[in-house]
């Protein structure tokens, strides 16, 4: 069974609810995954917007997620879960910041990407950005799952 990422508040290709966007409640969507591949020692989750005007914009990076986790809860400030590590997103924050595309720019596609890794943790500097985390994670990738939501203002 392949690694699969789902969200109970929106399905693949659907509109991301306002409660999960930055000018809404900015709640990180609850996420669940199944089909954890053999040999997984940790996970990394990133949220990125490749439709951003200046190139891919990173909204969240959570790394060193323990291999026994099967999801993440909805939360406005997930940085209080000591079992997880957060990289700086492109807003400069070490947390989830939801979609906030420019007004009138059209629909943006937000990619929630989960990577199963063959290492128990990534030794990354505390000030690392989301893009750096994702680059390092790709070096240890066993399998990846993706969920895409859409939002426009």
From TrEMBL:
<dbReference type="InterPro" id="IPR008914">
    <property type="entry name" value="PEBP"/>
</dbReference>
<dbReference type="InterPro" id="IPR005247">
    <property type="entry name" value="YbhB_YbcL/LppC-like"/>
</dbReference>
<dbReference type="Pfam" id="PF01161">
    <property type="entry name" value="PBP"/>
</dbReference>
<protein>
    <submittedName>
        <fullName>Phosphatidylethanolamine-binding protein</fullName>
    </submittedName>
</protein>
<dbReference type="InterPro" id="IPR036610">
    <property type="entry name" value="PEBP-like_sf"/>
</dbReference>
């Amino acid at each position: 069974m392949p690694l699969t990422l789902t969200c109970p508040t929106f399905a693949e290709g659907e509109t991301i609810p306002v409660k999960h966007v930055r000018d809404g409640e900015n709640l990180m969507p609850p996420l669940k995954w199944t089909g954890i591949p053999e040999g997984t020692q940790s996970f990394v989750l990133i949220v990125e917007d490749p439709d951003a005007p200046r190139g891919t914009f990173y909204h969240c990076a959570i790394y060193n997620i323990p291999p026994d986790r099967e999801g993440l809860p909805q939360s406005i400030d997930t940085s209080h879960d000591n079992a997880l590590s957060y990289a700086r997103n492109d807003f400069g924050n070490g947390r989830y910041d939801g979609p906030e595309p420019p007004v009138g720019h059209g629909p943006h596609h937000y990619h929630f990407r989960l990577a199963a890794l063959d290492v128990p943790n990534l030794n990354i500097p505390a000030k690392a950005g989301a893009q750096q985390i994702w680059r390092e994670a790709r070096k240890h990738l066993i399998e990846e799952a993706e969920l895409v939501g859409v939002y426009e203002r």
